[in-house]
Amino acid sequence: MSEYQLLLQRYDPEHDNEPRQQRFTVQGEHTTSVLDALLYVQQQLDPTLGLRWSCRMAICGSCGIMVNGIPKLGCKTFLRDYHAEILIEPLAHFAVEKDLIVDMTQFLAHLSAVKPYLINDYSGTQPHKQTPAQLAKYQQFSNCINCGLCYSACPQFGLNPEFLGPAAITLAQRYNLDSRDNGKAARMPQLNAKNGAWGCTFVGFCSDVCPKQLDPAAAVNQAKVESAKDFIISMFKP
Amino acid sequence: MSTPVSARKPYQPKLGRSWWLKHNYYRLYMLREATVLPLLFFLGCLLYGLYCLTQGAAHWQSFQLFMQQGWVIALNLLAFAASLFHAKTFFALFPRVMPLAPAWLMISGQWLATLLVAAGLLLLFGGWL
Amino acid sequence: MSSPKRSDEPIWWALFSAGGVCFAVFLPGLILALGLLWPLGLLNSAWLQHDKILTLLQSGYGVTGLAFAAAVICLPLFHAAHRIHHGLHDLKFGFSQASKLLCYGLALLLSLLALVLVVAV
To answer: Is residue B26 part of a domain?
Structure first.
């Protein structure tokens, strides 16, 4: 057992005008995650602490927070990897509702803007078959858990909240690359815009923080190539 | 009974101008973007050199004298370092934007091209060609 | 819902990318040769004499000179313009339309100057 100081950013919309910091002391062993520590604080020290969490195994994507300034999933980050004091803040660039809870409305709007579902005319009852090679084209980009860490890592989203952002553009690429999908023409206008793929300057930090190793930066920049091709094709259309 | 009032009061943090100083990853990004500043200096030298070429042999001599000044060499040393740092980052990004071949192959192929160009120029201007 | 306006970034991004390749492949060798070793007196080939350089640039009916200017001056200029334009946005200087005009406009002017100079030699 070792002792850790958690420096938590607190914000109570009913009393505070801006966030403040509060220190809590917790005990941690080799397997104690940051989420475990936060739940200990909530259950034993201060029941008013607000945070989101659910699965505790890096698949639900709810427990995104900033740990020492870096976007992390609380459940996939362990006290053992830190020194005695750990700064914990809500995900950067998003509006804070309370303590560690942020407003994801804009993020979800960006996700739905790229029509993230199969678009086709297929109405048969047979399963839609796909070869392993066709699957491999988009599989890497299909593992997104919508945790929003990439948005907190992206300064372009921080500077311009209208920027579609890494996860949404990766999702667009994921469906554009799917052999069962015919919806590319419907998605390209979003990617072609100033706030689409072109809002990115390949900082690349999104890929670093992605807990599922999707490489969203690569997806966004491959979307730029697609958008550039679309640009050239559009010049030859009346 | 009064109508319930929403207690929502979201706090929107603002990204300050110095956001890129806060993390090493962002500092390296800005350094990558800033490689074009010493590049611009060297491009200026090239333009001046071209101008001197059009003005005759005497001017070309004065261009060489200009390039021999300590501060010009220092800035060009910076430009050389910047070009290598740019190459390192650019070559690593390329296979992610256009995954045409395994990344290691694309990266080493690009370095080989840079090396061949440098070797060719040194052979030519070194008098071995 | 009307779709958002198509951006003209593909043009600038294509020039930026081409310039980035030139910056990474041609410039290290050129800076090493012309910016460092030649001024330090370590390169003394006849190819660095005034008349020989003219021959070099004018070879192939002047195409060599134009290709040289495009590869090591014009495209790298557009590469630099793109990074500075976006860098100004990163540093929150919010005049994006003006900085775009200024950056790419200057790159265009200096590129034309380079092409005029190699034609004139």
So the answer is: yes
The pLDDT tens digits of the residues spanning A47-98 come to: 999 999 999 999 999 999 999 999 999 999 999 999 989 999 999 999 999 9
Give the pLDDT confidence of C9-55 residue by residue, as tens digits.
999 999 999 999 999 999 999 999 999 999 999 998 888 999 999 99
CATH of the domain at A149: 1.10.1060.10
Closest among A196, A18, A178 to C13, alpha carbons compared: A196
Q: Report the domain count for chain A.
A: 2
Which pLDDT score is estimated for C44?
80
For chain A, how big is the Rg over CA atoms in Å? Answer: 20
Residue of chain B minimizing CA distance to A103: B10
Q: Does C97 touch chain A (CB under 8 A)?
A: no
Q: Are residues A112 and A225 in the same domain?
A: yes
B76: domain CATH number? Answer: 1.20.1300.10
* Residue B10 domain flag: no
- Which of A97, A155, A225 has the CB atom closest to B26's CB atom? A155
Q: Which of C7, C14, C92 sits opposite A198 (nearest CB)?
A: C7
- Tell which A residues from 142 to 181 touch C, by Cβ distance under 8 Å: 155, 159
Same domain, A89 and A125: no
B125 touches A at CB < 8 Å:
no
Of the candidates B15, B29, B98, the beta carbon closest to that of A203 is on B29
On whether both A109 and A141 belong to a single domain, the answer is yes
- Among residues A102, A126, A145, which one ends one of the domains? A102
Judgement on whether residues A24 and A88 belong to the same structural domain of the protein: yes
**What is the pTM for the complete model shown?**
0.94
- Kindly state whether B21 is in contact with chain C, defined as any CB-CB distance less than 8 angstroms: no
Residues of chain A in contact with residue B8, where contact means CB-CB under 8 angstroms, are: 13, 97
CB A119 within 8 A of CB A183: yes
Domains of chain C: residue spans and CATH? 12-120 (1.20.1300.10)
Instruction: Name residue A121's amino acid.
Output: D
Judged by CB atoms closer than 8 Å, whether chains meet at A218 and B9 is answered as: no
Phi, psi of A214 (to 5 degrees): -75, -20
- Cβ separation of A204 and B93 shorter than 8 Å? yes
**Domain with A183 in it:** 105-235
Give residue C1's pLDDT band: very low, low, confident or very high (50, 70, 90).
Answer: low
- How far is the C-alpha of A108 from the C-alpha of A183, rounded, in Å? 20
Q: Comparing C-alpha atoms, which of A176, A202, A170, A201 is closest to residue A188?
A: A176
A195–C90 CB contact, under 8 Å: no
A14 touches chain B (CB under 8 A): yes
